[in-house]
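Re: that chain you flagged

S.,

Sorry for the slow reply, it's been a week of failed gels. I finally had a moment to sit down with the sequence you sent. For the record, here it is as I used it:
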Amino acid sequence: MGFHRDMVSWFVGVLFLSTLLLCSADVHYYEFFVRESNFTKLCNTTTLLVVNDSYPGPEIRVHKGDTVFVNVHNQGNYGFTIHWHGVKQPRNPWSDGPEYITQCPIQPGTNFTHEIILSDEIGTLWWHAHSDWTRGSVNGAFIILPAENETYPFPTPNADQTIILQSWYNEDYKQIIDDALAAGVAPPTADAYAINGHLGDTYGCPSDTIFLMEVDSEKIYLLRIINAAMNEEQFFTITNHTLIVVAQDASYVRMFTTDYIMISPGQTMDVLVIANQNVGQYYMAIRPFSDSAAQPSEFITTGVFQYTNSEGGLNASLIPLPAMNDTDAMLNFISQIRYANVSQNPTINVPADTDINRRLYIAIATNTMPCNTSECVSDSRFAASLNNVSFVSPRIDILQAYYRNITGVFTQDFPFTPPVFYDFTGNLTDFNTEAGEGTRAIVVNYGDAVEMVLQTTQLGAGGSHPIHLHGFSFYWVGIGTGNFNNETDPSTYNLVDPPLINTVHSPAAGWVALRFFANNPGVWYMHCHFERHSSWGMSTVLIVRNGTTTETSMRPPPSTMPRCPGT
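Prediction finished late last night. Pasting the structure tokens below so you have them in one place:
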């Protein structure tokens, strides 16, 4: 315990003494070869689309402010795109990646080079496919180290370790969602969960492997935790060890200690752990969190935190994970996250009440729509919506249509408030659950100060939603239960040190409030990071118009953009 107290004192000193030194940025080059490979898990062999024959894929490791070129070669059987999750890509939406939003698919036998421009991101992000459900197997870490001559705002770890949490299916991910959408039904829940591609020792297949992290006594380790799961928020813990949260979504947070974390799909968290227990083997473990009527598979997946030269077995009964429906554990954890006022973070710039000139109140819902094809199992199908608009993906990407003034691809009339107000968080058993369809964009001016309130509804199965906005980090300034009250609830906002994140947990039967300045011109996707909800239409597009100068306007497109089918 004395070591931990010294560490906290050291951290407080760094808040005053750390200095950000200017340095030149580097340029890095990566080659991604995307093709089918076979993997055997749960005593079953499955063919998956992966990058460089690995699951998860290769790690990108660079420094703050660098530029990265990734040449993506499609050697598979169908088109896809790749997104650099959490990278703001200033003025460069052309390399952001979501299919039919900023580009068309990279077709089999072709390649496309992404230019990834880092700015103030620091810590852990990730990359993943952004087409149908292909991200389930096409994903990997994007590690952003401090700039040269820049320090961590906490004790320098002796080593770091990437921890990617995944959903495993005994089928091809694309085929799973294609079949479910055709039939109008919900896709199946995961067959297992994985830690860095390993299923651990709880599923009963003797050939399954367990992730092992070897550590030395009294050393400090930085865990870079990424939730790449398809539809599951996850609790994570290491038995008998305290976790020290230091960053979320590539932004430093005020350090706090906890026995577990709760991380949503799309989110990343940097966590310090000190190997200060008796030499031995300790479980690390994950279990899903859910407050929805549509429950995920309740599995515990294990890894091993192993001290060098340790002996002895492991005891699964000692894993201290919260129950899957433990809402208090979830709220207790996320309520501790605060922005860290350190020099390594961008200067805090929360829009004030008097700044806000664009307000959006967005109701999040799962819905139904008529199902009229021969493959439908009933006369209705699952859908999802934002402000009762179920997003329809176009066949020409919206960015190209916007840039070249191509008509008929999208409209600029996304509703800034729900078209119908009702008791969003009440009993909606007999409420009409149908939604309308459209490709309707939110359009704001460069420099607008935006407040966005996300209202989770009880339509359908209800439950929480992890909402991700491309092209931005936003300040998460408020959270509450019930229906948002625009007269009283803003008084509860945290405008002093709200977290700066890119994916927010919007709680069941509640709301969250976000604020940001629209200072990144382009076309930016916003969607639920539960893949089933995104597939059903729980998404929209934010268009930020160009400013009045070259520096506040989109860059022109590269000449090598993938061609859209039929063009």
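What I noticed first: Residues 1-23 have pLDDT under 50 and may be disordered.

Talk soon,
D.
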